[in-house]
């Protein structure tokens, strides 16, 4: 769906009421208005993220290009930091330069606030990336949260303190922020709860015991569903006395049949937070504790199906998982996230850290990480097998929702020397890299997997042709052709007809883009003349090799001016896609038809086909497809004499090309056509008028620009 007038950005909606910290919010807001870098530091659970998001929401109107959040807690590898930032802006990157350069180029002409949440575990990488982006992007400001500063000379540090505690001797004194938060959250847990003369003492004592830490207070308030306030306070006093000694309480459960090992080292948290989290852990049932520990292998959010697949076994029966998840939500261990794709869950970083400690303590971490990896591999394989069919939007949404988990699984696979999981996973995600705007990230993972594992086999052949297609998408035709040949050689050596055929079609695509029409036609013809059964992985599957070959031939015929042949081959491709309900490759068919209609001097028909293609490409965030179709719409506008629209659409297209790689994927004919559009528009508007309209398109938020290209704005 295209959003017309929404403020650019990706801040999540507030899910609970805001309590206190008004002066801190105003201070952070003022500092962000005048400083390039503001970092909120403080102990875990003190409320850094919520404070940053509250201030950021109040700053949205100050930044023309929006406020953007990048959550870093799911990342385990600093090398992915630039990719995570690029993904927030939908900046896929360039095949031959660092992603950070593509991000900096994208940001260079924009005024926006970047919120980097949870930097401490990637502190060196955050320091380097932040310094580079701020040096190259004068309109950029960064608001970071971290348990320690980034240590940059331009950094303004705000230490986030616990909430003020109530004054114990003044019954009529104004309620403190800590007491207010406890009361509000208690009322949410127990409807009708209120502060009275009878319970005020217990509430004040509980706030003091928890030292005003918001997360500790919220965890304690959730327990009021089960315990009266007086009993809760008394138990917390006992728990705090035990935890005053770090070698004290034991709050885990050893696996059945195993002698419980010694207590693991506690996370380096504030003592009050350790009290609240440890006590919440202690009051969970043994199955709830075990699930808490096992859930810590997930990065980002997850759904119940993934939990059953990864966490369930004879100790945690599958049928018990829904009730256990609900119990952990009730105890504020998990956050419930209703989404358009179904219910998902998320664990706060501090809670996850505790779970990781216990998973390691129980000796289950390697096994659970393998289960998590295998679940992601099953997802990738199924997505790759189903992609060229009626459920593409579903698979886009599903893999996008699991992006953090897929990254974590890939990183784990790259450290696991047994088997070919890294190659298998990276190659099976070919559709995610090529069709969903993630070509640069795919290039990095595929190259790392290929470098780490040289063993022959289907996994390697597939990773090679997947990399070939990725490189063609990024405009590196020579690299794409070389990887395709390597894949073809390996597949033929292994006697793998399916992988060999896809590799040959990738070679045809690379040669077609490079303008080697004879080589492209020969390779595509060989793919299409081979036995159809060799292309089918599953009965009824629409073969990727056939679609790539049809695309290559369509381009060859268009460049040669053989329009009837081009329309015929593209028509066959679109008909095959329609029979399967496939959209992604069909949209490329619409792109080719738009070009054919332009050559036939039928701009209205060309516009219809180009807009149909753009609808699909934008829905899937296919940056290559967006750039190509917007440029065709600029040519349509030129054919209809709309010079200002031409300039604005060319600016929008160049915004996309700055992030993808080579303009027009390096295809000479498409580059020449756009240059001719620009020349005609300049003749009408003059250089100054052209530049004004062009810059308006180039600086426009992508969603708004696409709405304009589609005729909706």
UniProtKB/TrEMBL annotation:
GO MF annotation: an example: ATP hydrolysis activity
UniProt-listed Pfam families: AAA_22, HTH_77
Protein name in the entry: Uncharacterized protein
Winged helix-turn-helix domain boundaries: 288-359
Residue ranges constituting the ORC1/DEAH AAA+ ATPase domain according to the UniProt record: 36-133
Top-level taxon: Bacteria
Species this chain originates from: Streptomyces typhae
Positions of region (Disordered): 244-268
InterPro entries according to UniProt: AAA_22, HTH_77, P-loop_NTPase, TPR-like_helical_dom_sf
